[in-house]
Amino acid sequence: MYSHLKVGVLALQGDFERHIHRLNLLRAQSREIRAVSDLKDIDGLIIPGGESTTMSLLIDRFGLRERLRETCGRKGVWGTCAGMIMLARKVDDARVRPLGAIDISVERNAYGRQVDSFHTPIWASLNGKPWELTASFIRAPMVSEYGAEVKVLAEHKGHPVLLLQNNCLVSSFHTELDEDLTLTKYYLENLVSVFK
Questions:
Q1: Is 4 or 115 the better-scoring residue by pLDDT?
Q2: Fewer CB atoms inside 10 A, N or C side of the chain?
Q3: 70 carries an active-site annotation
């Protein structure tokens, strides 16, 4: 169904393998991104969960920052958890240098430490219809501000947790740890296919 799409997953650290597994289930082509050359000819990019300070450091160590910024400006991009932090405009931690792909400000680990992790159903507005998603919040970031052009697609207890601006989708939570493919399909259909 999605075999014509080539999606790169930033694979410096974090849960990139789960995203690749999801893409493979949907027959999309996947590629681990570890070097600038890996970004060539991809149709979309996923920045996974992980540890955002480490991810920011490794992006610079591998000389990926400028090419990632370029890719995030042209292709459909999705950031989950730490990926949301990396795609934000502003982060509450000076150790993280975000890519500024979406007009949001975030607070790292705002939902608590690893022991405070939780799974909960949330309702998201996808293509104008309500969809129930299973969301895993693991040391998750919280959005403190968002710009006028940012659409909130889902909230949890009054806080935006799934947001969209142009070609950039971000989620505070993980869905790739579960068996639900809804959000991956949404990303492929509404961002990768549109901005490829």
A1: 4
A2: N
A3: no
